[in-house]
Structure formats: structure tokens, C-alpha cells
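User: Structure with C2E, C-alpha cells only please.
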Amino acid sequence: YAKQQGVNNYAFYSKEINELSKKRLSMEAALRRALDNNEFVLHYQPKIDLQTGKVKGCEALIRWDSPEMGMVPPFKFIPIAEESGLIVPIGTWVIEEACRQQVAWRQQGLGDLIVAVNVAGPQFNMNNLQQVICSAIEAAGMNPNFLKLEITEGMMMGDEDSLIKKLNDIKSYGPSFSIDDFGTGYSSLSYLKRFPLDELKVDRSFIIDVPKAKDDSAIVKAIIAMAHSLDLNVVAEGVEELEQLEFLKGLGCNVIQGFYFSKPLPAQAFAEFVRAGVDLVSATNT
Ligand code: C2E
Ligand code: MG
Ligand code: MG
Ligand code: MG
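Assistant:
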């Protein structure tokens, strides 16, 4: 009886696994079609400079505007795109689109805004990343100093000399580098002093409970102090509350990104947000 049940269980699981891989394959095909049909869109979340009270730029965040499923958030398709390798052409499109948009905003009189794009591991590992970036910047006619690339701690592991060369080659052309989701990786901190980085983004998980949680507050305080002593700018992600903003401002955090100011917005709405400006004085009138 037990044996029979085992066999049934096996059949049951293997059917489930089969369904899963079928789903994955059809998702992959759908992503391929989405790229061909231009179904991806970028939304832009403002990054506010606490020193000047101005919108310094934004982070470009991808969405899939699917005719069948509506607006699909990145967590539902980025992992499959990464596993299938499709993230590479999708990522190229993101860089090209972000550069075109940066120039379009400048032409609309918004000034030169720094646009940050997320770079996935497989994309970062491609030998032609520098070429992809240069082509996108040139095709858009953009000032290369206004492109920022968000990478993660995990990508800083591997042959150090070639990683440093890769970063320097791209930086020498103009773009800057930011470490995304800082504090959630398992890499050593020593790369921070050796690699040519410009910005740290403190992960949202550390920001959520400040200033109430003493441990998170201590971690955030230490990250900001360390980053500043290494000449890195600090961005706090996921700021939703005034209390968080005030705490971060008191610690000298440079830039705020979060729902407190705005969710990621379509390009046109972002332009309106920049035009309206941010009232930081009344926000932090302490
Ligand atoms: P990320 O790069 O850390 O981006 C920040 C995420 O936090 C965004 O989610 C943003 O909407 C969300 N966020 C910002 N402020 C707040 C806040 O105050 N509260 C809350 N609850 N959330 C906030 P989103 O757009 O869903 O993107 C999720 C992740 O997907 C990104 O995390 C990034 O890892 C990935 N991603 C997005 N766009 C791209 C892309 O073009 N390429 C690649 N490779 N990955 C991308
Ligand atoms: Mg990011
Ligand atoms: Mg982030
Ligand atoms: Mg994050």
C-alpha cells in the first residue's frame, strides 16, 4: 500500500513539475514576443537631493504592459528573463529607452536629469556591455555623465582586476555606478574601497522600521558614515514616512527615493513631477 502511495505521489509531483516547466516555457515565449512587439515600458521614480531639495534624477523601472495580463511588475518576469538569458536583450532595450527619455526631457526644458538603470548579472557579465552603453548614449545624443548604472554586491565577486577594468572602462566614458540593495548581499565590504563606485543605495529592508527600531537605525547610521568616509553618496530606498526622512536627513543621507515623494511614474507624469518641484522645507520643518 505504501509503495503504491509513493508511486502515486511521484506521479502527482512530476505532473506538477511538468505544469511548472510548461508555464515557464510559455512565459519565456511570451517575453520574447513582448520584446518584439514593444510591450515593455519604463516608469521613473524620482530621486530627491536632500541638500538642494531638488529632483536630481530618477530610477528607470521596467514594467510589461501585456495585452492579456495588463501591467506586469518586474518580480513576475525578471527572474525568468534572467534564467533564459532574455534579460540581455531586454536590458539593452532598457538602456536605450532610458537614454532616449533623458534626452527627450532635456529637450522639453527639464534640464539634465541623472537617469539610473538596473543592470542584471547576466547583462553585466557580457563582454560587450560597454559597447551597448556607448551605442545607446550616442544613438540618443545624450551627455554620458547623466547615465547611472545600478549593480548589486553579488556582481562584485569574481576576478577583481577584470571587474575593476570593466567598471573603469565604462566610467571613463561618462556613466557612474551605484550599488543597489546595499546590505543584503553576502560579499565582503573590502570591494567598496577598491572598486570605482559612486553611490550606495541602502536597501529598503533597513529603512522600513527606522527610526523606531534601534538595530536598523544603528545599521543605517553606520552605512551612511562608512559611505561618506569612502566618498560615496548615499541613497535611501523605500522612504515612505516623514519620520524616516527626518531621521535620514539628520544623518546626512544625500538622496531619498520612495513613496513618500512618489511612486515610479510614466515619463509624462515624471516630467510634471519635476516641473511641480518638491517642497522639502515644509516636509522637514523641524
Ligand atoms: P530595485 O532596483 O531595488 O528598485 C526599487 C523597487 O522598490 C521598485 O520596485 C520600486 O517601485 C520599489 N519602491 C521604491 N520606493 C518604495 C517605497 O517607498 N515603498 C515600497 N513598498 N516600494 C518602493 P519595482 O519597480 O517593482 O522593481 C523591483 C525590482 O525589479 C527592482 O528593485 C529591480 O531589482 C528589478 N528591476 C526593475 N526594473 C528593472 C530593469 O529594467 N532591469 C532589471 N535587470 N531589473 C529591474
Ligand atoms: Mg535599482
Ligand atoms: Mg534598489
Ligand atoms: Mg531594493
